[in-house]
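Justification of computing resources. Each target in the renewal requires a structure prediction run like the one illustrated here; the chain below, 345 residues long, is used simply to show the kind of job we budget for.
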Amino acid sequence: MLLTRDSLPATIADIAALDGLLCRPSQALIDDLRKVDGDIMILGVAGKMGPTLAGLAKAAAPDRRVIGVARFSDPAVKDWLQGRGVETLNCDLLDEAAIKALPKAPNIVFMAGRKFGAEGDLSLTWAMNSHVPALVAQAFAGSRIVAFSTGCVYPFVPVNSKGADEDMAPNPPGEYAQSCVGRERMFEYFSKKHSTPGRLFRLNYAIDMRYGVLHDIASKVLQGKPIDISLGHVNFIWQGDASAQALRCLAHCDTPTSPINVSGHEILAVRDLAAEFGQRFGRAPVLVGKEEPTAWLTDTSQAVKLFGLPIVDAEQLISWTADWVSRSMPSLGKPTKYEVRDGRY
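Resulting structure tokens:
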């Protein structure tokens, strides 16, 4: 079954149903992948979003080799990927020789990086977020490279604006986001040097039922925990839509590489989201802090022009999340820390 607005379920029953939905391709994704030849290799596939993207790629292009590369510290991730027809290769991406030994796939999706715990070992954060990209960009100079980045590379922008667009110069607070600028610069430098086509995929807040901004807010409302509204506005996107847009970027690469913002097209107030969950749960949210006039927000006009609006809209995501959280369904236990304003994660 193809993913369409009309085919979306009213509720997501369990993890198996969630995985199935996340890995369900749209016709637009299938069509775009047909425009690019060759295997698809995903570097750093074992993170929160990597398995979804790999499984989606295989579902959209079942006759294509899809290869997932990671250290696989959790063997269950490798088993899950192999069960969906994704080949797996163990590799420590800090090992230059190991990177060079990987097959030279024509299509690379780079997802490796370090965010949570970044402040605990800043040298490792910079190594993962800036040094590894330089190694990868040189090893795969002849490939297309879609490199995951973050909307956190931008400075804060007024909440009553459309958000930062791709022409805004990066100038973020905190070393985590600064190291992500380093990641982009490495891919940009080697893309110029080797004429490597690519995209810098500046993603803001992918939503999965098990984690994400909505999961964080809904869980706090249900548990009666305080919700900090100082970073009071967000935009977010269904993880399946974000994964599809990343894969579709392979057919929309630039030489040299260029950034593209990916998120929901709406800017939503945390206060309003909390109130919506409060209404559904029958309890008033506990709000603390003062809404600041700026936030990390992106203008996704370029992505909407290329890909259209996300298939899953904010209203559907709120409904799914409320249902999931109210049933005490599984959580990854990884808060997004969306409310952090100083860039320290």
